[in-house]
Write a structure and sequence with these properties.
Number of strands: 3
Strand content: 5-15%
Radius of gyration: 16 Å
Number of helices: 4
Largest sheet: 3 strands, parallel
Order of helices and strands: HEEHEHH
Strand order of the largest sheet: 2-1-3
Distance between the termini: 23 Å
Oligomer: single chain
Structural class: alpha/beta
């Protein structure tokens, strides 16, 4: 599930899917921006969690992904990426100058 209301099972389903891909809980990482919501499913297995706090900048996500890759994680669940986009929208809306041309400064950060 990509988009659904809170409590619909996105994190739980993502963890089950990740386990189906790896069959090894220790090779799964959750990048958690949802106030430790990934901990709710600790009974499933010993997956890894990296918590990201506000502000949810793209650079924090990139760093967390690199940590997971360097640790040999086979599946990375990002819960949730929407905070990153909301942060960039806030930054862009507060930038001086032309709103359209300011996207040229924001988009590369998001694409990273």
């Amino acid at each position: 599930m990509r988009c659904s209301p809170s409590g619909a099972g996105k994190t739980y389903s993502s963890l089950l899917l990740a386990y189906g891909l790896t069959t090894n809980w220790t090779k799964i990482a959750v990048i958690d921006t949802e106030n430790q919501s990934a901990d709710l499913y600790a009974n499933l297995g010993q997956y890894n969690v990296i918590s990201i706090s506000s502000p949810h900048t793209p650079e924090k996500y990139v760093e967390a992904i690199e940590i997971c890759e360097n640790a040999g994680m086979e599946v990375i669940v990002i819960d949730s990426i929407s905070h990153e986009w909301e942060t960039l929208l806030d930054i862009q809306s507060n930038m001086p100058g032309n709103s359209f041309t300011n996207w040229a400064k924001i988009t590369p950060r998001h694409n990273a």
